[in-house]
Amino acid sequence: TVGGNISLADNVAVAPEVSDEQREESHLIPQMTVKNNTTLNLSGKKLGVDADAANADYGKASPLLIAVDGATLVIDGNGEINCEAGNNQVYGINVTNGGKLIINSGSFYGAMTAAQVTKGELEINGGFFDMAPTCKAAVPQYAKYVVNCIDANWQDGSAKITIKGGTFVNFDPSDNPEGPNTTYVADGYSVISETKANGDVWYTVVKGTGAVAGTQEDLNDAISNNTSATIK
User: Fold this and answer.
1) CA-based torsion, 171, 173, 178, 180: positive or negative
2) In this structure, are residues 169 and 138 in contact, taking their beta carbons and an 8 Å threshold?
3) Are 163 and 182 in contact (CB under 8 A)?
4) Is the distance from CB of 173 to CB of 189 less than 8 angstroms?
5) What pTM, to 2 d.p., does this model score?
6) How far apart are CA 202 and CA 78, in angstroms?
7) Which of 16, 20, 92, 103 is an S-S bond match for 114, by CB 3.0 to 4.6 Å?
8) Which of 81, 16, 72, 13 has the alpha carbon at shortest distance from 43?
9) Radius of gyration of the chain, Cα coordinates, nearest whole angstrom
10) Cβ-count burial of 6 within 10 angstroms (0-12 exposed, 13-18 middle, 19+ buried)?
C-alpha cells in the first residue's frame, strides 16, 4: 500500500477472502491493492493461489490477486504469477482508475485472465502468457482473454493495451482482439508464430517485421525484403 521497491523472498500462496455479501455479485474482489507507484521484483519466485481455493465457493464473485488503483506497477524479475484455482475463476492483475501496469518479464497464467485493464493502461515488454492448467483444459477457446480490456472502455479510449514483446499461447494479440481492425501490438512491432508438438501455438511479439524461415530460400527472402526484421 505504500509503494516503493518490493522483492519476493520466497513463493507466496494467496488464500482468497470473499465475504458472504461479496459472493452475491459478479465482480472482482482484490486481495492486494497497489495505490502508490511500485516495482515488484518476482525474483524468480511464484505468486500463486493457495491449493484450498480449488474447493472454495466464491459465488458470483471472482478473486483478484492484485488491483492497480490509480498508480503504476512495474513487474520484473522473471518469476511467476499463477491463478490456478481448480474450476474457480481467479484473475491475476486488474488496472483501474487510470493506473498503469508495465510487465517486463515473468510467466503469467490466468484463470482465465492474467492481466486486465478496466480503466488505465497495460504495457507488455516481455514475458510469457498462458491460461492456468484447469481453465485451459476446460475452456481453451477463452485463451483470447488471457490479456484483456473492458470492451466499452477500449472503444472510448479509457482502457489501453500496448504490447512490444512477450509470448502468448493460443492468442495472437495482433488479430482483432477488440473487434475488426484492432490490435494490441505497438506500431513498429509484429508477431511471429510457432506451433508446438502438443498443438499449442505460441505467438511472439518482435520488433520490426517478423518472418519465419523454414528453408534457405525463405531465409534469403526474409533478409532481402526487410530492412528491420526478426527472423525465426
Assistant:
1) negative
2) no
3) no
4) no
5) 0.91
6) 18
7) 92
8) 81
9) 18
10) middle
In sign, the C-alpha dihedral spanning 91, 30, 117, 23 is positive
Residues listed for the chain: 232
Coil, strand, or helix at residue 60? coil
Whether omega for the bond prior to residue 32 falls within 30 degrees of 0, making it cis, is no
Residue 189 contacts residue 207 (beta carbons within 8 Å): yes
Tens-level pLDDT at each residue, the chain (232 residues): 899 999 999 999 999 999 999 999 999 999 999 999 999 999 999 999 999 999 999 999 999 999 999 999 999 999 999 999 999 999 999 999 999 999 999 999 999 999 999 999 999 999 999 999 999 999 999 999 999 999 999 999 999 999 999 999 999 999 999 999 999 999 999 999 999 999 999 999 999 877 777 788 878 877 777 666 677 7
CA distance 151 to 209: 28
Give the single-character DSSP code of 85.
Answer: B
CA 201 to chain CA mean position, Å: 16
DSSP-assigned beta bridge partners for residue 66: 32, 93
Pairing of β 62-69 and β 46-49: unpaired
Q: Which grid coordinates belong to 198?
A: 502438443
Q: What is the 3-state secondary structure (H, E, C) of 155-224?
A: HCCCEEEEECCCEEECCCCCCCECECCCCCECCCEEEEEEECCCCCEEEEEEECEEECCCCHHHHHHHHH
Cell digits of residue 46: 511464484
CA distance linking residue 205 with residue 192, whole number of Å: 7
Cell of residue 95, nine digits: 488496472
